[in-house]
Design goal:
Small_HSP; HSP20 family protein; HSP20-like_chaperone; A-crystallin/Hsp20_dom; mainly beta; 14% helix; elongated; three-stranded antiparallel β-sheet; Immunoglobulin-like; four-stranded antiparallel β-sheet; 2 helices
Length: 132
């Protein structure tokens, strides 16, 4: 369901290590799996306000964007230790043509964005032959 190969995954890992991308350092990890006629993508987004999550699909590319803010942002607090990453988080996933992205549903549960995408089922059909 995901368009991927060993080469793409290796390149993704190398890019994440070399450039230390925000997606990797901020914990936007995902699991993708299929159950019956539904394809699921679970993306870890702990500490994100669900109202600020932006999900788009354009030409079979699913993009998820959000921003994790520090609790002290906008307050008169002095940061002593900041180990938890903050800032923008984004993740792109290339989807197969067999998914019905028009019926994609999303929910946010306990820091995990759960995307449910129905698998498009091709229906057999009769084709009439016309004589010219």
């Amino acid at each position: 369901m995901l368009l991927s190969s060993a080469t793409v995954r290796d390149l993704d890992r190398l890019t994440a290590r070399v450039f230390d991308t925000a997606t990797r350092s901020s914990g936007a990890r995902l699991d993708a799996y299929r159950i019956d006629d539904h394809f699921y993508i679970d993306i870890d987004l702990p500490g994100i306000d669900p109202a600020g999550i932006d999900i788009t699909v354009d030409h079979n590319v699913l993009t998820v964007r959000a921003e994790r803010k520090r609790r002290a942002d906008g307050e008169d607090a002095e940061t002593i230790v900041a180990e938890r990453p903050s800032g923008p988080v984004s993740r792109q996933v290339f989807l197969s043509d067999t998914l019905d992205t028009d019926r994609l549903e999303a929910r946010y549960e306990q820091g995990v964005l759960i995307l449910d995408i129905p698998v498009a089922v091709a229906q057999p059909r009769k084709v009439a032959v016309t004589v010219a």
